[in-house]
Write a structure and sequence with these properties.
The complex is a heterodimer of chains A (205) and B (468). Chain A has 205 residues and is of the alpha/beta class. Chain A has 8 helices and 8 strands. Classes of the chains: A alpha/beta (205), B alpha/beta (468). The structure holds iron/sulfur cluster.
Chain lengths: 205, 468
Amino acid sequence: MEKFTVLKGIAAPLPLVNVDTDMIMPKQFLKTIKRTGLGKAVLFDMRFNDDGSEKADFVLNQEPYRHAKVLIAGANFGCGSSREHAPWGLHDFGFRCVIAPSFADIFFNNCFKNGILCITLPQAEIDKLTAQAQKGNTKGNDFTVDLNQQTITSPDGTVTKFEVDATRRHNLLNGLDDIGLTLQHAEKITAFEAKQKAEQPWLYA
Amino acid sequence: MAAPRTLYDKLWDSHLVHSDADGNALLYIDLHLTHEVTTPQAFEGLRTAHRKMHRTDKTIAVPDHNVPSTPDRLQKIDDPESRLQLQMLEENAQHFGVPYIPMSDIRQGIVHIIGPEQGLTQPGKTIVCGDSHTATHGAFGALAFGIGTSDVEHVLATQTLQMKKSKNLRVAVDGALPTGVTAKDLVLAIIGKMGTAGGTGHVVEYVGQVFADLTMEGRMTVCNMTIEAGARAGLIAPDEKTFEYLKGKPHAPKAGQWEQAVAYWKTLKTDDGAKFDKEIRLNASDIVPHVTWGTSPEDVLPITANVPNPADFTDPNKQAAAKRALEYMGLTAGTPLEKVKVDKVFVGSCTNGRIEDIRAAAAVLKGKKIAAHVGMLVVPGSGLVKHQAEEEGLDKIIIAAGAEWREPSCSMCLGMNPDILQPGERCASTSNRNFEGRQGRGGRTHLLSPGMAAAAAVTGYLTDVRKI
Ligand code: SF4
């Protein structure tokens, strides 16, 4: 997995609640058999008109947000379908960090598996960051997210602390491969199976 | 004496392979359901890393999302991308040795319908699938939840998942459901009360006589939509009904082991005095048929109500969301829900595509015609459901009413096959999500029960089924 240490970049505000994964990645793009190339599809119906032209008033179609790496969103972000195509699309667009008051469980987990840091902050903090993202967010004078220090530095220099699960942080900082880590416990898995088979033989019939 | 435990605690404890001081656990997975949409990248990941599956006897593969619902689907699938994805599933199943149910097999259907039908879904199991509605299987007292594709790959490679334990949430419902009120209305009412994020971070256990009274089909409908309240999984403790349902199913424990399995399953219930982190209480006798008006399953009201006014909400975020939802849905605040005209009606999906659901729709349609301006699709959840319905003559009733009787598929629940809404079309749907664009770009979805869907087809408007 890709490492995440310090991220510097533009933050795009998307102050909507309950943005679901159908909105982030509509069904017609789930037919791919690859993980890449979904950036063009992310938030598709919000970004594009029926004829395929861009909706000029949507934040990701405006400068400097086209180049955003951080998304500042509303509560319950990523609810609904488990489709990992949603984080794949966000990643492919360029996002490496999503900040919101709350996330849906499956989406939250899927993001970390793809090197995207999800940060949960109280609504009041989100409102401040959103205001910052809406003004004075230019290339070179943008946001810095430091996973080591667990801080977000806004363009005006304000520093916001955040909490993140210690294991997720460790895995992200080091870009660790989950399957590789689990396979270190291979013997325990086999032992579990032997015990379960003795106690619940119908599971192995 | 050991501390009293919840059903979830017991299911969790009995599958722990490993856990560290921080609560990071490795959980053993007893059943992995797979379909064509969320697996290609996972199998590809295995191949790239030169990894094998840990074992193949606890996985099953079945195509559902992209499968057309039309009778000629075995001859041709027009969409090349759908075709490729279906082909990939078959190839991957063959290559890795995963048991596979092809489209031509009578057992084919929506993954969450075939698990129980085949007796693969059993009390006490941990069940995962790259699909959020895996929560369905909790109806059997199994710990079942949806996962992303990276986790699908992880389960294929290790038969385990890395995770932390969720919290316990009890949804207690007192009283009994009034006549004409179904499991779908019950779960919609629960979601309305909890909100779409009310269950985040929790596993729900449903308790109360009303769940004991529900059929297994009804319990599945309730557990299926648990994810729409944000919870990872929903549970109903297994009982005699559960055992009766499973007995004789192809993959259920065989004679000799059956008694041993049932004895174990009977231990799968929350101990007296076990602690829940949160509790929600409702009274079933207050519930009437429900329908959604907005673009989140929490936007739900009794059919007797009017379209709400965004100004009625106190939370400014919710106000903005309601305003956006009404615009998207093309609805005006204050309109009685029964005055909302529908264009399409869909009966099907893993929420309401089982035999009981088809029966409920047919009971309303019997001897009637659907309104001239309405198109109605009835899509059984599996080949076995279809067969059973035809044995009972339900297909004839449905066709005579002017509706279409189709082949098993996810169909218009999300429209990855050709069954989609056109922009602006309004659909009364028995599925589980009314998100913007869910059933087709610009499509407008109202979630309701199969009986309510059929009633809407007959009158052409959202309708209180109790009047029909
Ligand atoms: S019927 Fe709908 S919700 Fe169920 S698995 Fe299929 S697409 Fe998902």
